[in-house]
Amino acid sequence: MSPLIIVVCGNALRASKLNTEAKMFKGKEAKSIKLFARHFKIDDQMKLLRENVIHFAVATPERLRSLLQQDGISLAHTRAVVIDWNWRDVKMKRLIDVREARSSLMSLLKDHVIPACKKYHVKIGLF
């Protein structure tokens, strides 16, 4: 229930692409999961997280926040939360430029990630 690395990105399309591009970084043995709302129910994702060891997770801010609120995921063994800060979509908007994503990201950081940094020594990174 606690991936080693969590990458937070702006939308489902970017999450899928980033997960594919990270194969070389992850290696063959690392297991990864995509955490976003498109075509995936939160209960199914919670079940996958409970039943498998996940090393690398790519998530949208809202889905990650929802999973943390419902205790579907934990940050106890997470070493890094990486924010996909510089990537821009076709409209040249970053994660922080989209109002809905910005509010989800800020509440995610304030309510879950920063307290985990103090309690579990999670690191925050910008990509």
UniProtKB/TrEMBL annotation:
One of its GO terms (cellular component) is nucleus. It comes from the Eukaryota. Pfam families: CMS1 (PF14617). InterPro entries: Cms1 (IPR032704), P-loop_NTPase (IPR027417). PANTHER family: PROTEIN CMSS1. This is Uncharacterized protein. It comes from Ciona savignyi.
